[in-house]
Amino acid sequence: MTGQLAFVESPVQLLNVLEWAYARTPVPAQRAAEAPKGLGGDLAIVVLPPTDPMSRGQLRRMAQLARDEGVTVRWQEARGGAGAVLRTLARLAPELNRAERVVIGDPFSRYVQLLLTLVRADRLTVVDDGTATMEYAAQLTRGERLVRWHRRGSRGPRELVLAPVGALARHRLAPARRRTVEIFTALPVDPPPQTTVTVNRFAWTRSRFGPPRQTRGADLVGTSLVETGVVHPDRYADAVGGLAEAHGATRYFAHRRESAEKLHRIAVETGMEIVRPDLPLELIARRGPIGRTVVSFPSTVVHTLPAVLEGTGVRIAVCEVAPEWLRSNASPRAQGFLSGVTGTAPTMIERLEFG
Questions:
Q1: What phi and psi values does residue 223 have, to the nearest 5 degrees?
Q2: In angstroms, rounded to a whole number, what is the distance separating the alpha carbons of residues 255 and 221?
């Protein structure tokens, strides 16, 4: 068995694989900023791209950054029906059998769960793909099946068919006598017993980019809470307008999953410039320019941006999601999860309320 094999499905996952590789580079902390480029070693990254254009564009940019660091990156089209899935699994099986360590980014992904059924490596690492890492760790600790926090957990025909795959994935994600599991994260997690937690301090991002130039105004970070069926679109639009007026926000950084219709409405109603980032926001913020104040709803960035922008003086604020914003059919866990994201954010982040 040889090598470290990573599977990524999103730009943030690819970024955090690079951070993980950088954190493992044997360079003293005081020399991190002057560390020479070159994270390649025996790391290979397989990109399993989704179908939406914005994610694919960011992934291509991230893949090039990884190649610039000497990392082997392979683009593997894996969507397009059961036939494409089976062909991809057959193609990847030999590499999975040879890998000493497998790195994944989304334990909730059905694709990743299928890949885990083929894993023989005795070392497994999970990197962040957002706040879902918190829920994944908690569910694994409680011995629950893996269900995304914004879903109601219904057991339809597809879920019943894939239930054995999910059960085997949970087994692979749990430490055992001959298997170690690491969570590489910037988020506060409640890890299962015997799981190693390594803190992601975004050292690679800070060493390669910035510090950023700051603008006079504020920037607002968008979220896909409407698209995932959690927040009512009218309540969200009202909140964005109120926050823009209160903080003088001039730019709205769109989440890659936000719909064009919603973004058009925000632009018309608030007058803000809609920015569709070509890289994860952590890199955009570090490269700059970035507002002196960054306002976000509960999301991953309220945990990652404090590390990325440490020492720059940028003020970060998070707006609570009020219960009345939620859709009537939102998951019962939604309010508690969103409150937990805000409540566990670093203490220097300002808490805001609107509504």
A1: -140, 160
A2: 8
**Burial (Cβ within 10 Å: 0-12, 13-18, ≥19) of residue 5:** buried
Paired tokens of 41: 């070693």
Here the tokens at position 3 are 């090598």
Structure tokens at 50: 């989704």
Measure Cα distances from 253 to 26, 223, 231, 257, 258 in Å: 35, 9, 18, 12, 10
Helix, strand, coil percentages in the chain from 3-state DSSP, rounded to 5 = 40, 20, 40
Can the peptide bond before residue 211 be classed as cis, meaning omega within 30 degrees of 0? yes
Helix axes 334-343, 132-142, angle to 10 degrees: 110
181 Cβ neighbours under 8 A, 6+ residues apart: 124, 125, 126, 173, 174, 175, 192, 194, 195, 196
Q: Which residues pair with 103 in a beta bridge?
A: 6, 125
Q: What is the per-residue pLDDT across 5-58, written as a single tens digit (0 to 9) for each? A: 999 999 999 999 999 999 988 765 444 444 445 677 889 999 999 988 899 999
Dist. CA 335–CA 328, nearest whole Å? 12
Full-model pTM = 0.90
Beta-carbon contacts of residue 313 (< 8 Å; ≥ 6 apart): 214, 292
Mark 115-141 as b/e (b = at least 16 C-beta within 10 Å).
bbebbebebbbbbbbbbbbbbbbbbbe
User: 154 vs 106, 158, 160, 253, 327, CA distance in Å?
Assistant: 20, 10, 10, 33, 17
